[in-house]
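Bit of a strange request maybe. I'm writing a small parser for structure token strings and I need a real example to test against, not something I typed by hand. Could someone generate the tokens for this chain?
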Amino acid sequence: MIYDRFQREAIDYINEGHSVIVSAPTGAGKTAIAEHVIEDCIKRQDGVIYSAPIKALSNQKFRDFEKQFEGHIGILTGDVSLNKDAPVLIMTTEIFRNWLLDQPDELKRYSWVIFDEVHYIDNPERGTVWEESLIFLPPHMNILGLSATIPNIRQLAEWIESIHKKPVKVVVEEDRPVPLHIYFQCQNQVFDKMHDIRRLRHGRTNKLTGLMKYIHQRNGLPCIYFVFGRRRAEYLASELYNYNFLDSIEQAEILSLYESLCQRYDLAHEKSANDLLPLIRHGIAYHHAGMLPTLKEVVEQLFTSRLLKVIFTTETFALGINMPSRSVVFDELKNMYGRYARRLKTRDFYQMAGRAGRRGMDEEGFVYCRINPHRINIDEVKDAIYGRPEMVKSQFNTSYGTILNLYKKYKENIFEIYPLSLHNYQSKRHQQKEALRLMEAKLRLLKEGGYIEEGALSVKGEFAKTVFGYELLLSELYTEGVFEQLDEFGLGIIAVSAVFEPRKNQSPPSLSKTARSLERAGGDIFEDIKQKEWRYRIYPFSKRPYFHLAPAMVAWLQGTKFEKALQFTDTDEGEVVRYFRMAVQVLREIEDSPISNTLKGRIGKTIRSINRDVVDAEKQLREG
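Reply from user aminoacidic:
Good idea to test on real output. This should exercise your parser:
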């Protein structure tokens, strides 16, 4: 294989035994470096772990690598466990972090860990997991970090060097192998220079059909159209219904492929698959987290077949999933960050725009930005596209589970961990003091709550350290004897309610007597936890349990078909599957904690009842 300059440089460092962090634009070919590590480890009979930020990316990498390195690939993501003793093990970063803290001996046979999308360390919700994974990495393991363009990549490498006392080489590639040509649609006209927009007077609105005709006529298909909302994706796809992108031969091919894929994934009689069919016939589809995972899988396979010409999708489609196109369209250049809509970060813009231009197929990629002057001003557009990519910043906020695992190992020396963090490395003195105060406050709360007694973890503490993310709520329910009294329906209700997050203004359904009593018990415990956290000035507060999916979970546990179980909730079907899979993961963590054999048996039965048909993620991978 002929490598580009940056690929060769990274591989040379790897061959010399160095850890490496690579910063390069989306689509530049970073995966080839990971493939070299994997191939070399297989030859030397060494283990390698591949860690990805989202399960969809983990699943795709499992399929891709299994084709390439057949029989050597395993996957472990909480809801999937296939060939987990394989020399190459793909896993979520959460599981890798949990192994580091709770099962470090499991890592002795692995010499490399590959962190895909390592800039995820600044994700507000999950970045801490990445940071902890890098802090607690054992000395025998090398790192390959792969990242989209970030300006402070050397700072990240220097921080890792400072805690592990060995060199980390940095490889930077600024240029894309396929250059991007950026256009703007404003006042229903298309320009390739931003200053032309400033001269326009407000008047005409942008028409989707006009833009898509423009792209089609200039041989700009296939096209990924990024939308910041699920309903918007479906609405825009339907708006194009009267536009056919396929000739009669392509139409026959895509319908045949769609039918065979729907048969393979048991979607032939699913309403959502039938609703999508008229769009598929015209070479159009949508793709978002509210869809059934199997239907998303079908859409992805149609897109890679090159028969699907336009796909309306949300931003997660850009995160590492290898779906390049000739053109990318941005519905707008604003997105929700936390609770507020702000102009798109430059790094996020290029993560998505980077899907335009297929290496080895296109001389350039085309990016179209739809501009509504009433929603965004031209200076904001300029900053999003031509600004400097944002620095990666630590989001360090150690969980209760991490503190318990660390306390078991380090006792009162636990606070010596914080100086090793990226947060400490990047922060000013007052920020460092506040981060330490938060750790101390959480430790005091755990001691007050009986999780730590006489310098050691209590039974309650041992239970809590296994259920990351829901430690206090589930531990208090367990300590009060609630779990021991529950049948499989109650266990399913508690697990799904712990993980569920309702949409804004989503109304709860009417609940059964059992669900109401669990809601009262969970609500009382949550309020008590919240009061303690408020008193200790701990933020953000632990997650409240929400019982919106309780009726759907009961119906599912009774063996009801999925489409009938959906009648008990107004939550999107893809979200229901995701939350049911998360509930299975929580139940597996409880099953691994120090509980009675009787309760273990009931939990095992509950897991098997939930993890069937469309919820069974392993089944989806096997069929794929």
